[in-house]
Amino acid sequence: MISAVIPTLDAAARLVPCLSALVPGAVDGVLREVVVADGGSQDASRAIAADMGCRVIEAPRGRARQLAAGIAAARAPWLLLLHGDSVLSPDWVAAARQHVTRHGALAQARPGAMGLRPAGYFRLAFDEATAQARRVAGLANWRAQALGLPYGDQGLLIHRETLAAVGGIAELPLLEDLDLVRRLGRRRLLALDAVSETSAERYRRDGWLARPVRNILIAGAFLAGVPAATLARLYR
């Protein structure tokens, strides 16, 4: 039913828990395979993925290119796009199965643009139990729910026909996740009743105030029409 597609680049530090969290999906039968699209890792990412039973492919570096390569290699109709530092909560299996079962035949029943199967995303949490981490995650979850703008670290469960209908993964150096959900539109995005816990490393490094402010400014500039290539130089 589902192929998980995970782009990696030196992701070994969090890859084991990320992949381990997917095992119950394989046992349940909802998850057919995990495709890891590696962009040239210098650490043990590829070896870890291979040892844990994933299909590992090499792809040009860049999350958008890696996602596109992984999607092309995947075989299931539903795609779970996931970052290599994100760990899904155990209830993701039931949430994903419910979404796939409920929306599996929607496109045939309701042809046309609004008949496309909706995509699902998870609630965000960080691997840090502090008030500031909860605040940032809460704002991200509000943004996803109110504005229809979940980011890639929340995961995305999407049917490949829906993905193709909205133009696929754009080859951008940055914000390919925001670009995709903007094209999907709020009405084609549903919150799944499970959590994606992601690494707070960048927030600890850059600051729990400075990093979100920079993210908001960059996302706002992108939505206003500033080219992603220009913004990529500011983000790194």
Fold-level CATH name: Spore Coat Polysaccharide Biosynthesis Protein SpsA, Chain A
CATH superfamily: Spore Coat Polysaccharide Biosynthesis Protein SpsA, Chain A
Order of helices and strands: EHHEHEHEEHHEHEHHEHHH
For the largest sheet, list the strands in their spatial order.
3-2-1-4-7
CATH classification class: Alpha Beta
Tally of contiguous helical segments:
12
Q: Stretches where pLDDT falls below 50 for ≥5 residues?
A: 107-114
Relative strand content = 15-25%
What is the end-to-end distance?
A: 36 Å
Please tally the β strands and state the result.
8
Number of domains: 1
Biggest beta-sheet profile: 5 strands, mixed
Average pLDDT number: 93
What's the architecture, going by CATH? Alpha-Beta Complex
**Structural class by helix and strand composition:** alpha/beta
Tell the overall outline. globular
Defining traits:
single chain, alpha/beta, Spore Coat Polysaccharide Biosynthesis Protein SpsA, Chain A, 5-stranded mixed sheet, 3-stranded mixed sheet
Short structural summary:
This protein is α/β, with parallel strands linked by helices and 236 residues long.
